[in-house]
Amino acid sequence: MRARIEDVAEKAGVSMKTVSRVFNHEPNVREKTRLRVERAAQALNYRPNPSARSLAGNRSYLVSLVYDDPFAGSAYIMEIIVGMLQACESMRYSAMLRPLEFSSADHVASVENSIAQYRPDGLILVPPFADDAKLLHRLDELGARYATISAKSKDARVGTSLDERKAAGEVVDHLAALGHRRIAHVAGPAPHGGRVWRLSGYRDGLRRAGIAYDDSLVVDGGFSFEAGIAGAKQLLDLDDPPTAIFAANDDSACGVMHEAFERGLRIPQDLSVVGFDDTPTSRQVWPSLTTVRQPCREMGRIAAEQLLASIRDAGAGSLVRVPYELMVRQSTGPAPARTKRR
Fold it and tell me: Which of 157, 244, 256, 323 is most exposed, with the fewest beta carbons within 10 Å of its own?
């Protein structure tokens, strides 16, 4: 027969309320008691009944990840999903993926409808939703718990972030140290906070290197392979093309590399390329991609952990700043002696 919570309580020598508090990861439970309950549950092969658990706790034990549908297949989103799932599994929570079109005029209503239909205990918002003032205001009105990932607002309270501006500045520092003076940037999409930070960091790096900002070396792009190709075409068609291109993310950087190879350029001898995120692709392409390591999986896990902490205790949960690292690989090298129009 299936073990019941009463059986776990009897075997552990504690009350059913204590067992419930352990399974719900509530605070103020002694570690010795927690271990005794967990061992009893394991010995009895006890599995909580999701329906009964939800009714007893007046919760759905469900977390929803809200992200922009065009980026659904990106390595960045997939890494965040894996991290979120790891945290949810350890806390006995289910996860729901909610891709939406940020460009849609009714995306706030779509999120509200999703909350009404599925009743998640909280949401994790990925940019650009993490920066959408209207959505955040509506969630606050509804009293909904949420955590943000890489929100550009200084008012973000729960979730995780990374100093993307400083990281982007270090990219330019690295390229300038290699002798590059014509350093270009394929910027991210306009609604995304990462665009603002990475562009600002790019300009910071230019200032430190004593390089004048040149509008022609910054092109609108996106976070896709195709955006990288389009951006590279604009930049490499210039009369005085760049010797280095810093792309908005790894997917875009791979598009830049593709276009460079199509033109017969060698990387890094003729053109240095840098990305952002350190997705698995950055290590699989050749030459391997110099990039900023943004621990996306860790960010997904931490955001979920902080959200769940705030769900258990309204005063808990915080904004966690995670470290980054510039991963120097084979796609960057010394600036060529001269740049030729190709």
Answer: 323
Q: Are residues 49 and 72 in the same domain?
A: no
At which residue do the structure tokens 């960091």 appear?
201
Report the CATH number that the domain containing residue 14 is assigned in CATH: 1.10.260.40
Residue 339 lies in a domain: no
Domain extent, residue 169, equals 164-293
In a domain, 132, yes or no: yes
Strand order in the sheet with 94-100: 94-100, 62-68, 122-125, 146-149, 159-161, 319-321
Q: In a 10 Å sphere around its CB, with 0-12 CB exposed, 13-18 middle and 19+ buried, how is residue 340 labelled?
A: exposed
Q: How many domains does the chain have?
A: 3
pLDDT over 60 at 56, yes or no: no
| pLDDT above 70: residue 50 | no
Does residue 305 come out as left (phi exceeding 0), alpha (psi in the -120 to 50 range) or beta?
alpha
**pLDDT for residue 339 is more than 60:** no
pTM recorded for the entire structure: 0.79
Tell whether 75 and 101 lie within a shared domain.
yes
Tens digit of each residue's pLDDT (9 = 90 or more) over 68-124: 877 666 788 999 999 999 999 988 899 999 998 888 888 999 999 999 999 999 999
Q: Binning pLDDT at 50, 70 and 90, where does residue 1 land?
A: low
Residues 168 and 274 in one domain: yes
The Cα 137–Cα 15 span in angstroms is: 41
* Residue 318: both structure tokens together: 């915080």
User: Does some domain include residue 328?
Assistant: no
Q: Tell me if 177 is assigned to some domain.
A: yes
Plot region of 81 (φ>0 → left; ψ -120 to 50 → alpha; else → beta): alpha
